[in-house]
Each structure stands twice: as C-alpha cells, then as structure tokens.
C-alpha cells in the first residue's frame, strides 16, 4: 500500500493548525481536525490522522510555488504526495522516476 501524505511548505505550517491538532508536538503524524477531514480525505488515515511532510522554498522552489499557489486558490495549503517506492528503493532524482515508470509501465495500466 502506498503512503499518501499531505505536503506543505514550511511557511504554511502555522496555517496548517487549522487542519491538524497538536502541531507543536514533535513527530510527523498528527490528528486531523474532524471538521476538516472532508476537505482533505485523500490524506486522512482511517484513524483520523495524517502524516505531515514539509519543505522549504530553498530546497525545492518549484514545488514550494506550486503548493503556495494551490493554497491561495483553494484555502488548502497542502498537496497530496506519494512515492513510487512500493517494495522498492526510494527514488532520488527525476531520471530515476522516469526509468522506474518505463520499467514498470504495465503496472500503471
């Protein structure tokens, strides 16, 4: 099973308190506010939690801009994020993603 997680930029972390409970605690898994679960169902686990991921503008400016624009347009300062690495190594580059996609093309159709 692939892990589906909400990804938001660090500047939106404070705004994420509208969606998550106890953001000040350490960790990555937080309870999603019950009244917000219907707005972000794809990242809400069956127990009402979500595994949060953040990124900075310095480390990934294009993705940061995408999340920022999405947040401005929708009021939801996060995007769904997942990986290709089900039972395989984590991908580190776009080239690895393309090669994995081509090698496993039948799995996606």
TrEMBL record:
The chain crosses the membrane at residues 12-32. It holds the Pfam family Carbam_trans_C. Keywords: Membrane, Transmembrane, Transmembrane helix. Residues 28-98 form the Carbamoyltransferase C-terminal domain. InterPro entries: Carbam_trans_C, Carbam_trans_C_sf, NodU/CmcH_Carbamoyltrnsfr. This is Carbamoyltransferase C-terminal domain-containing protein. It comes from Plectonema cf. radiosum LEGE 06105.
């Amino acid at each position: 099973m692939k892990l589906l997680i909400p990804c938001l930029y660090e500047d939106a972390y404070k705004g994420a308190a509208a969606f998550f409970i106890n953001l000040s605690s350490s960790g990555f898994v937080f309870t999603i506010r019950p009244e917000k679960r219907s707005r972000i169902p794809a990242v809400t686990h069956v127990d009402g939690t979500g595994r949060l991921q953040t990124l900075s503008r310095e480390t990934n400016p294009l993705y940061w801009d995408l999340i920022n624009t999405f947040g401005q347009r929708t009021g939801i300062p996060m995007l769904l994020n997942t990986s290709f690495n089900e039972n395989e190594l984590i991908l580190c580059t776009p080239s690895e993603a393309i090669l994995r996609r081509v090698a496993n093309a039948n799995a996606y159709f």
